[in-house]
Amino acid sequence: MSRKPQTGPLQGIRILDLTRLLPGPLGTMLMADMGAEVIKIEDPNAPDYVRVFPPFVGGESVNYLAYNRSKRSMFLDYKSEEGRKIFFELVKTADVVVEQFRPNYLDKMGLGYEEAKKVNPKIIYVSVTGYGQTGPYAHLAGHDLNYIAYAGVLGITGRVEEEPVVPGVQLADIAGGSYMSVIATLSALHARTQTGVGQYVDVSMTDAVMPLLSVSYAIYSATNQHQNRGTLPLSGGMPNYGIYECQDKKYIALGTLEAKFWSKFCDLTHKPDWKMFMTPKNPEQLLSFKNLIGGLFLEKKQSDWVKLGLENDLLISPVYGLEDLENDPHLQARQMIIETEHPTAGKLKSIGVPLKFSETEAKPSWAAPILGEDTEDILRELGR
To answer: Which end of the chain is less packed: N or C, by CB atoms within 10 Å?
Structure first.
């Protein structure tokens, strides 16, 4: 029996997923969790590379399992003549194709948007690449670190007078690729309801990560002054908005950005004279203020500071490790760490669905499919 998502706001939308690795697959999984029927199509001779990335559970890569749930899996040699025929038969039934190859790769195989819209004028193609379909870098290889380097994000990430720091998550891949591919898909679907025709959407991860610079670039463009790492207001330039070590070697995040919260913090910690610390006049004064605040936080354990923050709405949060997430009561209440059952890997914990819909609940439909698991059912649906 063919499986289809039974709930979610995107029910009735069929997406052909040709993406690999992280950016595209996470984006299509988010839409699958929201009810879209996502068919992950893989060449049997060159399946998604992420399948061979360790570690493995039950013979499956945990990376593949993490961002391919709720999808159907199909083997298809789309480089062969018969495979291309089947692909276009699927295109006739689909709403969206999401792909992540280098520019013109699908065009050269005769599977690009121009050919697809001949058989389905309503089809939408979303192409996710590192640098976009045009420009001098368009055909270059790259990864997340390259994209955030070109975008300027890496250059302002780190501490004062220290080297740039590699972020702990893939900013361009996820914010620029996964999230933007969802935005691109939904925007094009809405446009199609107005025009009746599909379109091609060019998603450059470098372009798409640049809105993360909106605040920083606004300051630069207004002052025309170089913005040094660790000196921007929201990335180290304010002593009342930062990270501090506690007595037990754990850390807290202090987010007292507004004067009213900082003033309350100073009063509750019996430091009324610290209220002037919000506006250091120079880097030396900033460092001096941070050292004084840092000394205060070293006087108590993380749990003590978190308790003070929760009881007084002080914007003090624990800096969690991954092992802490499933035990947080708020994340539990929001179902942001969930457990699914995989046929070979067993029970798996993963990140939950971030959007909550009152009438069309979005939730995982099933664990990530075994390679080619749905091929026969999909071919049967095509009458083959």
So the answer is: N
pTM: 0.95
- Helix pair angle (23-33, 179-195), 10° resolution: 60
Q: What is the pLDDT of residues 350-384, one digit of tens each?
A: 999 999 999 999 999 999 999 999 999 999 999 98
Query: What CA dihedral angle connects 8, 11, 13 and 18, to 10 degrees?
Result: 50
Active-site annotation holder among 173, 324, 328, 377: 173
Span 14-212+333-381 CATH architecture: 3-Layer(aba) Sandwich (3.40)
Q: Kindly list the domain boundaries of the chain, sorted by start residue.
A: 14-212+333-381, 251-318
Segment 60-64 long-range contacts (CB within 8 Å, at least 24 positions apart): 60/342, 60/344, 60/345, 60/368, 60/370, 62/345, 62/348, 63/22, 64/368
* 3-state SS assignment for residue 183: helix
Q: What is the pLDDT of residues 216-243, one digit of tens each?
A: 999 999 999 888 898 888 999 999 999 9
- Residue from 144, 165, 158, 139 nearest 208 by CA: 144
